[in-house]
Amino acid sequence: MLFRLATVCISSLLMLLLVGCGASSGDSASSNIKLQGSGASFPAPLYGRWFKEYSTATAGVKVDYQAKGSGGGIKDFIEHTVDFAASDAAMNDEEIAQAKPGVVMLPMTAGSVVLAYNLAEFKQPLKLSREAYSKIFLGQISNWNDPAIAAANAGTALPDLPITVVHRADSSGTTFVVTNHLSAMSREFADGPGVGKSVNWPESDKFIASPKNDGVTATVMQTPGAIGYVEFGFAEQAKLPMAELENKSGNYVAPTLENAKAALAGVEMPADMRAWLPDPEGAQAYPIVSYTWLLCYTEYDEAEKAAALKQLVAWCLSEGQKSSAEMGYVPLPENVVSAVKAQLDSIH
């Protein structure tokens, strides 16, 4: 009887040790863990694919993500209603100070913001000079046959049609990226609407607000003469034409993967992972490109949740990057992947 009791006790002790070892090693498969995130719609199609594939491949872990705009994600993160957030605008110092106990910002992918338009009878790729598209978003060019647009599209007939500008209604990292670029190349824009996740656009019935990237895309599709800024993948999926933009070197470039890579080529990632490309150098650099960040806490109350999140990020940096280009995003350069992996040690 004593022998049987001792055997049961030893078996129970071994089971406890095995469970303890599993938890300390970060093996989340033995538990039912749900990671909840919110934020940027810019990377939402890619994140949706990544998180679904990871949840399917990893027993016991489910990842949910709600695209509500970068501003909404940062608000949720500061208020601790999510386990992680996403933003196309890296948190500023004021926002970081509010994020307790601390934040780790991890660039996960990059992509182009395009100017998609609806000109049914204009069959050739539209070229927009720096003067033309900055003045469109200032409300100073209001018709498609304006001389500033016609000058870059010689030999083509531009329609006599009012321009409707579609911008984001929500607090948006995509808006931050676009206004950061416009402010970098136009003093008048910098002194007017300026840079921000939400800005005061010109007061006009030809400036329409729509929520998220998919809302802007849908409004452009439904509005003849419209132009709006959206992430490349949304415009591509909707089969909307995208303007070729004049870059800093004076060349007109399309928002291709190669031209987005050219924009990123000269960027060095700083220690805090906040790298901006307001007006990239390079003959083939597409002018509106940005990294997008995952926001994680430095400390989590549950060790298993912290371990699961770190495993998720590690998977996104390896297996996940393989599908980035297919989805219209720019895979991270190897040096950036290495830098982001090193930051995972800051999460506990």
UniProtKB/TrEMBL annotation:
Q: Where is the PBP domain?
A: 30-319
Instruction: Please list the GO terms describing molecular function.
Output: phosphate ion binding
GO biological process assignments:
phosphate ion transmembrane transport
SUPFAM superfamilies to which the protein is assigned, alphabetical: Periplasmic binding protein-like II
Key words, A-Z? Phosphate transport, Signal, Transport
The GO cellular component terms are: ATP-binding cassette (ABC) transporter complex
* Top-rank lineage group of the source organism: Bacteria
The record ties this protein, via InterPro entries, to:
ABC_phos-bd_PstS, PBP_domain, Phosphate-bind_PstS
From the UniProt annotation, give the residues forming the signal peptide: 1-25
Answer whether the UniProt record assigns the keyword Transport to this protein. Answer: yes
**So what family is this one in?**
Belongs to the PstS family.
NCBIfam families reported for this sequence? 3a0107s03
Q: How does it assemble?
A: The complex is composed of two ATP-binding proteins (PstB), two transmembrane proteins (PstC and PstA) and a solute-binding protein (PstS).
Q: What does this protein do?
A: Part of the ABC transporter complex PstSACB involved in phosphate import.
Instruction: Identify this protein by name.
Output: Phosphate-binding protein
Q: Which organism is it from?
A: Aureliella helgolandensis
- Lineage, top ranks: Bacteria, Pseudomonadati, Planctomycetota, Planctomycetia, Pirellulales
